[in-house]
Design a protein that fits this description.
Blueprint (H helix, E strand, L loop, with lengths): L6 H14 L7 H10 L21 H10 L11 H14 L2 H13 L4 E4 L15 E5 L2 E8 L10 E7 L10 E7 L5 E6 L8 E12 L3 E2 L5 H17 L10 H10 L6 H28 L7 H24 L24 H7 L10 H12 L20
Parallel strand pairs: 1-4
Antiparallel strand pairs: 2-3, 3-7, 4-5, 5-8, 6-7
Helix pairs in contact: 1-3, 2-5, 4-5, 4-6, 6-9, 7-9, 8-9, 9-10, 9-11
């Protein structure tokens, strides 16, 4: 961290950015590029990569100045996978060339990212993945299938883990790559879900050639790299900054206040309980973000993601029950392929159906419970007999 950069300095730099690139007369993309180049994208990132080598906590001062000036943001919901998962992984394991190539267009939103991790036979047990990457000169040839891939239909790049050595135990024979989603052999197909939309996709990889220069981390150490991605993913899902009554608790609280004829004693008690739990989760998320100032996220993010999934499902269930017959209505069943998920801008039926996926995406609740038990509480690990067996010898 640079001791010369404090809150006053980042405010000065932010005002300088606004003076040189007035939001009212500067194009959105041009403004975002200028913000990145000024080191005000991620202030805790290195200089030249969107940051100032400053404490992460100073980002709030930048964001407040820009919000007051009505400056454009980079639409973080649309590029959440890039911001929350790809960027910290590239920063932690990428080469200097990779950082320079990918971080700026990622943050600006010129290039959308997706995550090619889960497979039909490797969801909760991600390390059992079967997608193969075989070395061929300066390239890797990748064959396999990925599933539940958010934003694959809109993505330019993907973070991908694939098996590079089937003779090693499953966690040790994996490598991590950056995959060009426009390359020949990448086939993206929609998966229509319970909401009627196809927000997720399945991706078939047939002879896809990835240059070795797009590998992140050493060969065979992809699982270690993937842990950085997964820990950041859980924080980005469960620990995002929201105001009081933000998120799912907001719509049901408004309905309660505006529709007194719907109230019952039972729903009143449940709403009070969930409101308090949502506020506790929000404040815990604030504490977690403060801890991140000291370094990378740890397994505590799994606890936040667990709470996020449970609360979303319970709150949306209460909202549907509170609305009675109205809660059974569903606004639109049109098959679309959205670029972002909008929980609070849709009706109660959508929130109820979409929240069912919260306990699956970003790590199932069952897996996260194991992580919290073993890595946070220090409980004994579950017995396993596959850790030292070559992947090719495992029963499937």
């Amino acid at each position: 961290m640079s001791p010369a950069v404090d809150a006053a300095e980042v405010r000065r730099r932010t005002r300088e950015l606004l003076a040189e690139h007035p939001p009212a007369t500067t194009g959105r993309t041009d403004f975002l590029k200028a913000r990145f180049d000024a080191g005000l994208a991620w202030v805790h990132y290195p200089q030249g990569l969107g940051g100032l080598d400053a404490p992460r906590s100073l980002q709030q001062a930048v964001d407040a100045e820009l919000a007051a000036a009505d400056a454009p943001d980079n639409d973080p919901r649309r590029i959440g996978i890039g911001l929350g998962m790809a960027a910290p992984t590239i920063l932690g394991f990428g080469t200097d060339e990779q950082k320079r190539r990918f971080l700026r267009p990622l943050w600006v939103g010129e290039e959308v990212w997706c995550q090619l991790f889960s497979e039909p036979g490797a969801g909760s047990d991600l390390a059992a993945l079967a997608t193969r990457a075989v070395r061929d000169g300066d390239d890797w040839v990748v064959d396999g299938q990925k599933v539940w891939t958010s934003s694959a239909h809109a993505a330019r790049w993907a973070i991908l883990i694939a098996r590079t050595d089937p003779d090693l135990p499953k966690h040790r024979g994996i490598s991590y790559f950056i995959c060009d989603m426009t390359d020949p052999g990448v086939d993206v197909r929609p998966l229509r879900q319970i909401t009627g939309e196809a927000e997720f996709n399945e991706v078939f990889l047939s002879g896809v050639r990835i240059p070795d220069s797009h590998r992140l981390g050493p060969v065979g150490e992809g699982w270690k790299v993937a842990q950085t991605t997964l820990m950041n993913e859980r924080v980005s899902i469960g620990g995002s900054r929201i105001p009081r009554e933000g998120g799912m608790i907001g719509p049901v609280s408004r309905t309660w206040r505006e529709r007194p004829e719907l109230r019952t004693h039972g729903t009143h008690q449940r709403l009070l309980t969930l409101w308090v739990e949502a506020e506790v989760a929000r404040l815990t998320g604030e504490r977690l973000r403060q801890q991140l100032v000291a370094g990378q996220p740890g397994p505590e993010g799994s606890g936040m993601k667990l709470a996020f999934a449970r609360l979303n499902q319970e709150i949306s269930g209460l909202e549907v029950e509170l609305l009675g017959d109205e809660g059974l209505l569903y606004g639109d069943w049109t098959m679309v392929r959205p670029e972002l998920v909008d929980f609070t801008g849709r009706d109660a039926g959508y929130r109820y159906l979409r929240s069912k996926g919260n306990s699956i995406e970003g790590g199932t609740s069952e897996v996260l419970l194991n992580i919290v038990a073993e890595r946070v509480l220090g409980l004994p690990a579950e017995p396993r007999n596959d850790k030292d067996v070559a992947w090719k010898d495992l029963s499937r």
